[in-house]
């Protein structure tokens, strides 16, 4: 259209300036802070630039290793669970059953629930004595799981809750991908085989694979940031078993006010985010010209 | 670089293609029911628990009246006697979310329209990617500088400060939802207005904007939900005077110990509004949440 009018800057700039001012500027400032010893004590009278000292002390910080293990377990676990379950549910909903649309709406409800509140829901559901999950396990003849007191069980409880919230996300994206597969492909395949699995394996799956890749990347990035659910569900406990890396950055910077060090920890996260988002954009770039 | 056809369907026209199911329908419905139950069960359990007293909440009973005598104790405590703090926090949440939604939708519509209709020297694709990359940014990385800036600007613990924070996080969503809408929308109508001598601003306001109402609603609801659910920045920047409801919810256990029924009540109040609103934006959820990366 009128591609060269000057008015185009009037439309573009307000939003762009806003993002620049409120995200890029803080990021630069954060990078600066990561080279300083800013903390509670020198907060008002000024801090010193100490170079790479913060970064140098990260490898010897034992808490970092522990929180990274938790974060990686949650991220890989939750991504895997949501991908498998989400794809299965999408496959179910890709059948021609009347009335499915209503159920689709119900299924996306968890996505919009505040994670901080869901943590409390986890607290109620996973409670070891009165929680319904343990009641269910006992009903089946098993023994109650120590969701609140055993480190790995607690991590798994957080993982399951996060997966419960985000499976619908995978579901709706994969469903959209499945619905864009032309019917003719299925009809041709049906002439050769009657069973569902080979069709899924050789037709559906290859065609939804790109969408699965996109969604996996999004889920990996999102889950690595997880903080709200472990915070409200178990306060990072038992001990510090469910403290994620983000959680550790948060308490280091804003509970112990060790801002310089926390900024260096956060910057590691920024670098990882930049790497993953580069892969992501490389995958989807073509769509945005 | 391959370019996808510009006119991908705006929405999938049919729910599911007509094809014979490989499984008997009964089995499929059964599976759908199990999945629905699995999604609804935690909500249902929270509703049941919210009508239990503390002692009842420790027993795994399900059916009110038959298995336990339901009590309004928790709802009364949250909305009745202790209601002032609740009303205050809910009021803050509404002011913050509505303020951020209005700002983000306004800015997002302008920028989204710009990215769909005009060409920029730096490359529209690059601008879009950059806007998207905001989503990948870990919030904890900007938390500390934000805190320091807000302190300098004397915006700590104020509603305007929280509006500013939430606008920043929701703006990329608004921009990309609106860009996607306008990009799919035929330019011919606007070109006709251009021929008639209308200015770009007139065309935007009189032609494009009225047609964008559905996308605008979707963008607004998604922004609202994100702002409403935000906890991390609120916990640092709005602990008292601008305290939103998420912060109040998070402080529950420390105030009263683990009181399940009460916790369930607060949890339900916190999640109801965005969850209900989400039912109105089904068409846009896929694109909204993937920032337009996947067409839904």
SSE topology sketch:
The complex is a heterodimer of chains A (289) and B (296).
Chain A: H1 7-33, H2 53-57, H3 62-93, H4 100-107, H5 115-125, H6 132-139, H7 151-179, H8 183-192, H9 196-224, H10 228-234, H11 245-254, H12 259-284
Helix pairs in contact in A: 3-7, 3-9, 3-11, 5-7, 5-10, 7-9, 7-10, 9-12, 11-12
Chain B: H1 25-50, H2 54-57, H3 73-81, H4 83-117, H5 124-136, H6 139-152, H7 159-184, H8 188-195, H9 200-211, H10 213-229, H11 232-237, H12 245-250, H13 252-256, H14 260-278, H15 282-289
Helix pairs in contact in B: 1-14, 3-4, 3-14, 4-7, 4-10, 5-7, 7-10, 7-15, 8-9, 10-14, 10-15
Structural overview:
The complex is a heterodimer of chains A (289) and B (296). Chain A is an all-alpha fold and 289 residues long. Chain A has one domain: MetI-like (MetI-like fold). Helix content of chain A is 70%, strand content 0%. Chain A contains twelve helices and no strands. Chain A has helices at 7-33, 53-57, 62-93, 100-107, 115-125, 132-139, 151-179, 183-192, 196-224, 228-234, 245-254, 259-284. In chain A, helix 3 runs parallel beside helix 7 and helix 3 (62-93) crosses helix 11. Chain B starts with 24 loop residues before the first helix and ends in a 7-residue tail after the last helix. In chain B, helix 7 runs antiparallel to helix 10 and helix 10 crosses helix 15 (282-289). Chain B is globular and about 70 Å long. Mean pLDDT of chain B is 84; it is low at 1-18. Chain B has 15 helices and no strands. The longest helix of chain B has 35 residues, at 83-117. With 296 residues, chain B is mainly α. Chain B folds into two domains: 23-71, no CATH class; 82-289, MetI-like fold (Orthogonal Bundle). The chains are: A mainly alpha (289), B mainly alpha (296). The interface between A and B is large, with 111 and 119 residues.
CATH class placement of the largest domain in chain B: Mainly Alpha
- What form of chain B results from the Cα inertia axes? globular
Q: What is the beta-strand fraction of chain B?
A: under 5%
**Helix count of chain B, per DSSP?**
15
Most extensive chain-chain interface: A-B, 111 and 119 residues
């Amino acid at each position: 259209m009128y591609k060269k009018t000057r008015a185009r800057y009037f439309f573009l700039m307000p939003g762009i300036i806003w993002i620049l001012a409120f995200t890029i500027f803080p990021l630069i400032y954060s990078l600066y802070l990561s080279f300083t010893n800013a903390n509670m004590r020198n907060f008002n009278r000024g801090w010193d630039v100490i170079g790479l000292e913060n970064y140098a002390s990260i490898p010897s910080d034992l808490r970092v290793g522990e929180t990274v293990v938790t974060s990686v377990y949650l991220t890989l676990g939750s991504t895997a669970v949501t991908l498998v379950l989400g794809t299965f549910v999408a496959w179910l909903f890709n059948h021609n059953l009347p009335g499915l649309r209503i159920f689709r709406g119900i299924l996306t409800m968890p996505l919009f629930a505040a994670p901080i509140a869901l943590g409390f829901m986890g607290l109620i559901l996973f409670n070891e004595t009165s929680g319904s999950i343990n009641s269910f396990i006992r009903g089946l003849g098993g023994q109650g799981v120590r969701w609140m007191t055993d480190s790995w069980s607690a991590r798994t409880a957080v993982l399951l809750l996060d997966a419960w919230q985000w499976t619908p996300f995978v579901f709706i994206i994969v469903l959209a991908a499945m619905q864009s597969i032309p019917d003719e492909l299925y009809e041709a395949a049906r002439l050769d085989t009657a069973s569902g699995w080979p069709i899924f394996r050789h037709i559906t799956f290859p065609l939804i694979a790109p969408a699965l890749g996109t969604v996996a990347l999004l889920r990996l990035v999102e889950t690595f940031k997880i903080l709200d659910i472990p915070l409200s569900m178990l306060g990072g406990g038992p001990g510090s078993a469910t403290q994620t890396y983000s959680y550790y950055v948060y308490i280091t910077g804003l509970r112990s006010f060790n801002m310089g060090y926390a900024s260096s920890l956060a910057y590691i996260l920024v670098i990882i985010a930049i790497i993953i988002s580069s892969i992501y954009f490389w995958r989807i770039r073509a769509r945005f010209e | 670089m391959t370019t996808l056809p510009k006119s991908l369907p705006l929405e999938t026209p049919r729910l599911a293609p007509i094809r014979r199911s490989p499984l008997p329908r009964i089995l499929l419905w059964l599976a759908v029911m199990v999945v629905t139950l699995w999604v609804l069960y935690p909500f249902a359990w929270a509703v049941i628990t919210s009508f239990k007293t503390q002692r009842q909440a420790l027993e795994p009973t399900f059916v009110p009246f038959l298995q336990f005598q339901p009590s309004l104790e928790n709802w009364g405590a949250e909305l009745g006697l202790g209601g002032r703090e609740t009303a205050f926090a809910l009021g803050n949440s509404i002011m913050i979310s509505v303020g951020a939604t209005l700002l983000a939708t306004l800015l997002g519509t302008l920028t989204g329209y710009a990215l769909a209709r005009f060409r920029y020297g730096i490359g529209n694709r690059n601008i879009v990617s950059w806007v998207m990359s905001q989503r990948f940014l870990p919030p904890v990385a900007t938390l500390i500088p934000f805190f320091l800036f807000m302190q300098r600007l004397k915006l700590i613990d104020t509603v305007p400060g929280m509006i500013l924070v939430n606008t920043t996080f929701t703006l990329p969503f608004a921009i990309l939802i609106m860009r996607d809408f306008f990009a799919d929308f035929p330019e011919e109508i606007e070109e006709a207005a251009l021929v008639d001598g209308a200015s770009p601003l007139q065309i935007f306001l009189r032609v494009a904007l009225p047609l964008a109402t559905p996308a605008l609603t979707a963008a607004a609801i998604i922004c609202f939900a994100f702002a409403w659910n935000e906890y991390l920045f609120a916990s640092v920047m709005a602990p008292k005077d601008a305290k939103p409801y998420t912060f109040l919810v998070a402080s529950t256990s420390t105030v009263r110990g683990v009181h399940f029924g009460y916790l369930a009540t607060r949890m339900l109040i916190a999640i109801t509004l965005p969850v209900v609103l989400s039912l109105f934006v089904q068409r846009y959820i896929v694109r909204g949440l993937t920032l337009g990366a996947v067409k839904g």
